[in-house]
Amino acid sequence: MKNKVVIGVLAFICILCIWGILTRNRLVDREESVKNQWANVESQYQRRADLIPNLVNVVKGYVFHENSTLIDVVNARSKATQITVNLDNLADDELEKYSKAQGEISSAIGRLLMVRENYPELKANQNFLDLQVQLEGTENRIAVERMRYNKAVKEYNASTRQFPALFIAKLFDFPTMSYFEADKDSETAGEVEF
Amino acid sequence: MRIISVTLFFLFISVGLLNAHTIESIPNPKHENKHTYVSNPDGILSAGSVSELNSLLDELEQENGAEVAVVAVKTIGNNDIKVFATDLFEAWGIGKAEIDNGFLILFVEDQRKITFETGYGLEGILPDAICKRIQMDTMIPHFKEREYDAGILAGTKRVVSIISGVESVSSNQSYGIYDSGTADDFQNTVTTKNSRKSLEDRIRELLPANIILISIILIAAFFFIIKNIRKTNNNPELSNAAKCIVIREEKNKILLIVSVATFFFSIFFAVFFQQFAHLTSLFLTPFVLILPNKYAKWKMDKIQNTPMLCKLCQGEMHLLPDKKEKKYLQSPQIMEEDINSVMYDVYYCEACENSKVYKLDIKGKYIRCPKCENKTYAEVKSRILRAATYSSTGLRRVTFQCKYCKYKNSEEVVIPRKEDSSSSSSSSSSGSSSSGGSFGGGRSGGGGSTSSW
C-alpha cells in the first residue's frame, strides 16, 4: 500500500515538472515573438524617418515661403529619434510617448505634403510623386506591423494570465507587455490622395 | 406606393451587400488546380484573358518560383482595399515560405481601385514607386475606358517581366534609395516564428507533447498491469502455474486496449490541432509498450516457479510434472486435460506427502456434459435442414456428444432470416479528386501601392 502512494506522488511530481518546463518554454517563445515583432515595427518607423530628408530636399527646391512647415517636419523627426523603447524594462507609458512622437511626425508630413496644392510644379515633380507613394506605402507597412505586434502581445499576455500558467509566469517574473494604442492624431495624418 | 419603393430600395441594398466578397468567399485559385493563379468569381475577366494570365503566371512560377495571384471582384463591401489585400495575401500565403516571393494584384470594380501587395521578398525589385508607376502607366488608362481585361493583362505582364528579370528597373527612375536596400534588411529582421515551418521544426515542437502522451501511456499501462498481477496473485483458488496463464491473458488485453486508446487519441489530436506530427506518437507506442510487457513476463516467471504453501505442515509444495501428476487425477480429469478444456495442476508436499489439485477453466469449444458433468461435451455435427431466405427463417440440426460418457443429443436451432445487405451500405461520397494544392505560405508586410480611376 505504501509503495503505491510513493509511486503515485513521484509520478505526480514528475508530471508537474515536465509541465512546468514546457509552460516556461512556451512563455519564453511568445515573449520573444513580441520582441521580434517590435523590432519590425521600429524598422518601419525608421524607414519613414529615412525618407524624410529626401522629402525635405525635394520640397526645398520649390518652396520658399513654407519654411515653417519644413522646420516642423525636421523637428518632429529629431524629437522622435530621441525616444527609445526598451521592451525588457518597459515603463508605464513609454510606448504611449513613443506612439505620440511618431504620430506628430505623421501629421507634420501630412501638412508638408498638402503644400503641393500651392505649387503646381512641385505637384508634377516625379521625385515628389515617388516620395508620396513611398510615404503612403511606409505608413501602410507601419500599420501592418503594429497590428501584428498587438497580436503577438495579445497571445503573450493571454498566456501569462491564463490559469494555471500564471503561476509559472509569476514565478519566473514574466512581465505584462503593453499594446500599441492608436493615437487620436494618427487617424487623419499621412493620408495621400491623388 | 412609397412602401413598395422603400422596400425595393432596401432589397437592392441588401442584395448588393450580400454579394460583397469576404476573404473567405473569394475562391483560392490554387485549390482547384496547381497551375491556376487567377480568381475571377464575378466574371469580370474573359475566359481568354484568364487562360492567358494563368499560362503567363505558371511559366513564371516554373521559372523562378515566384507566385503571383490575380483577383478581380465586383465589390468587397465597405472594406478598405489595401487592408483587404494584406489580409487576403496572409490568408492564402502567397509566395514560397522561406523567401516570401509572393505578389497579389487585386481589382475591385465598385471602388474603382487597383492595388498591389508585395511579399517581403519582392520589396526590393518591386518597390512602392515602381508598383505605382506600373499601375498609372499601363493599367489606369485602360480602366478609364472600362477595358478591364486589357488593363489587368498589361499590368500583370509588366510585373512578370520585372520579376523574371527581363526588364530591369534602374534606380534613377525612382527615389528608391531605401527601397532597394530593404529587401536584404527584411530577410534578416523578418524571420518571424509565424512563418510556415519545415516538417522537422514541427516535429521538434511537438516533441514535448508527445513525451507527455507517451509517459501517460506508460504509467497507465504499468498501473493496470500491476494492479491485475496483484489481484491474480492473491487469488487462493488458482495454482501458481494457472496464475501465469491468467496474467498473460489479462496483460494482452490491457496492452491491446492501451494501444487502441493511443491510436484514437493521436488521431484526435492530429485532427483537432491540425498537426500531423502528432501521429509520431503512434509509431513510438509499440516500443514504449515493450517495457510493461517485459515486466509482466518477469513477474510471471517468478510466480510460476514459486512453490505453494502446504496447509498441513507449513512446508513447500512443488508442482508435479505431467507424467507424475496423472497419478492424482481421475480419468475424466485426465481426459479434460488431454482435450485442453481444463488445466489441472497438482502440487505435492514432500514432507507430509500432502497433495492438492488446482484447476483452471480454459475457454474453448467444450462445455459441461449434462449427463456426466465433465467438461467434455461439444458439437460434433451440424446439418442444414432448411436454408434461410429473405422472407423466412431456416432450421439446422446440431448434434452434441460427450467424449467421456458418449452421451449424444441433437436439437434443432433456428437460422435467422437473411438480410438485404445492400440497404445497409451507405452511399459513398463523391469526393472532389482535386489535383490542386495551395500557395507556398509566403508573407507580406503591407507593401505595394493603390491607384484609382
Fold and architecture overview:
The complex is a heterodimer of chains A (194) and B (453). Chain A is mostly helical. Chain A is 75% helix and 0% strand. Chain A is built from 6 helices and no strands. The relative contact order of chain B is 0.12. In chain B, a hairpin with a 7-residue loop joins β9 (377-386) and β10. The radius of gyration of chain B is 39 Å and the shape is elongated. Chain B has helices at residues 2-18, 29-32, 47-64, 81-92, 128-144, 148-163, 177-189, 199-233, 240-272, 280-304, 322-325, 331-338; strands at 38-39, 67-73, 102-108, 113-119, 308-309, 316-319, 342-349, 354-361, 377-386, 394-402, 408-415, 444-447, 450-452. The interface between A and B is large, with 37 and 34 residues.
Topology:
The complex is a heterodimer of chains A (194) and B (453).
Chain A: H1 2-62, H2 67-82, H3 94-114, H4 120-124, H5 126-161, H6 165-171
Helix pairs in contact in A: 1-2, 1-5, 2-3
Chain B: H1 2-18, H2 29-32, E1 38-39, H3 47-64, E2 67-73, H4 81-92, E3 102-108, E4 113-119, H5 128-144, H6 148-163, H7 177-189, H8 199-233, H9 240-272, H10 280-304, E5 308-309, E6 316-319, H11 322-325, H12 331-338, E7 342-349, E8 354-361, E9 377-386, E10 394-402, E11 408-415, E12 444-447, E13 450-452
Parallel strand pairs in B: 1-2, 2-3
Antiparallel strand pairs in B: 3-4, 4-12, 4-13, 5-6, 6-7, 7-8, 9-10, 10-11
Helix pairs in contact in B: 3-6, 5-6, 8-9, 8-10, 9-10
